[in-house]
Predict the structure.
Amino acid sequence: MYYMIILLVYGAVDAIACLGLSLQFGVAGVTNFGFIIFQAAGAYTAAALALPSDSADGGFQTYVGGLNLPFPLPWIGAAVAGGLLALPFTFLVGRRLRGDFAAVGLLVTAVLLNLLATNYRPLFNGDAGMALVPAPLQQGMFVTGSNAYQLGFAAGAIILAAAVYWFVRRITESPYGRTLRAMRDNDKVADSLGKNLLSLRTGVLVSGGAIAGLSGAVLVSFIGVWSPAAWSYAETIVLFTAVIIGGAGNHRGAVLGALVVPVGFEEITRFISNNNPSLPPNLLPSLQWVAIGLLIACFLWLRPRGILPERKRLIPAAPTWTQRMLRRAPATLPRAATLPEPDSLPRQPPQAAAASGPGLAATAAGPRTGTGAGVVAADSAAEILRAVGVSKDFGGVQAVSEVTLSVRRGTLTGLIGPNGAGKSTLLSLLAGTERVSAGNIIYAGQDVTGAPAYRRARAGLVRTFQLASEFKRLTVLENLLAAVPGHRGDSFLGAMAGRRYWHADEVGAIARAQALISSFGLTQHANDYAGDLSGGQRRLVEIMRALMTEPDMLLLDEPMAGVHPELARTIGDALRALCQDGMTILMVEHELAIMDEFCDPVIVMADGRVLAEGTMTELRDRSEVVEAYLVG
Ligand code: ADP
Ligand code: MG
């Protein structure tokens, strides 16, 4: 009986921890190899808050705290401690796109903190650890150690695990959770669509840290002792194994993994050593590591998504209830109706920002003779984007040198040049994916040179990528929905507020996405994983996803590369129509025919510099342009 209770409590503790890890790793793609330190922080905090002052037990152990607080304060304190401890690490995983680097940093920190706790006695009694941690609510009618008390404890732990399950599910099943999954699949792209990676990663690190802290509190309250040996960095690997085997990104899988791996291993070890008392004491723990290694290898090879893989989120094609809701909810989401973003650049109405200095291109432009339909304003002031002396060097390679150009509002401007000319790099500089080495970028009258990509995207300047950049494990529809700006459910608090709070936004966004998907003829693929589509279809998804952000200006990097010619024409026509409706597009291509047909004006780049600018007819007459092509 007592043994069953122990298993139940351990199961609940491991389930709580695995749910936190599942949120961080499975959903948000944050590889926290230091996960165990957050559990340890919770355990130490709970112990230090629940124990009386360290002189009370005759001073046989020394520790800080000793506040003797009543339940549930030690547990709350543990969750807070786990969350707070996560804050310094947000700078490690934050915005920079080096997940592997951050993972190693966290692992090293875990080892260092364990060494510190082992060797520094005044903090938490060093390697001897803390003992006699009081169990919660043991006064009065509850008698510690009685079966009834232990059973009650196990029930409480299971209820707590259920609450944590509810919490992570509420996040994961919200638009905020969808954004986390998008960040997991491709953080650079999420950034370019206006997602603040630092804030997203802070959210999962802190909430995952609080969950881990809570699991530590439950554990220490149950076993009454806590020492550095209980939280070696290797424990993190056991939890990772559990989450990977159970199914990363599936919270039921995380719970299952918690029951199979940590609890199961304890069980097997105990069973074998009980029946073979003559075995050397170190053999079983070592074999346990071998088994964990084999288990991970087998699963990654045979069933990489785990026993219970992440569920595919199917959204039915405009059922009647959606249409009924639509009559009540606006089909498009006006940006103004959303929560104000304190750190976003102000968006300006189309003409208001126009008078920002002389348009560099327009002075050289002259009358237009191209077939491009985007000639809206011959007004020299109608400039939306300007680069002044922009350069970028990658450790000696001068990818872009001193580029000065200007894009007028409402045009479909082409950017052409041979491979390696620096077109993609220039686009990255304009969008903020890369920082300039020198020069300035002015968008809608604002100097955005120092603004990160997500802020430029929120201001309406949105890019696509040359290489495939769909969110692979999101469906086509979800790819589009993830890009919706200012969705009420796309924040931690919005997710917590629940479906009723954001449902109307979601319905409107779904309707808009479905309309867009149908206009590009992809309706029958709406619920397919984007990663399973053909190359051409994925290009469409990326364009549609960029359009979902309601951009004022699109930067497209070879949107028609590798696309069937017929589809390329459809894309070109669609882009031209968008420009007629007032959007501005800067499009990189290296096919002259496409430039001929759709773009006006055209900017020619070679060797990182702008060679020429004008209509295609004008450019064909210029020898240096022809030469660049022959040479390149
Ligand atoms: P394009 O898109 O016109 O083909 P790119 O902008 O991709 O050209 O590349 C321009 C030059 O910059 C190339 O010589 C390329 O090798 C170099 N380059 C691009 N990105 C990087 C990078 N991240 N690190 C180092 N060199 C780069
Ligand atoms: Mg390129």
Residues 329-344, 348-380 have pLDDT under 50 and may be disordered. Strands lie at 383-394, 397-408, 412-416, 438-443, 446-447, 461-463, 553-557, 584-589, 602-606, 609-614. The longest helix spans residues 197-223. The radius of gyration is 29 Å.
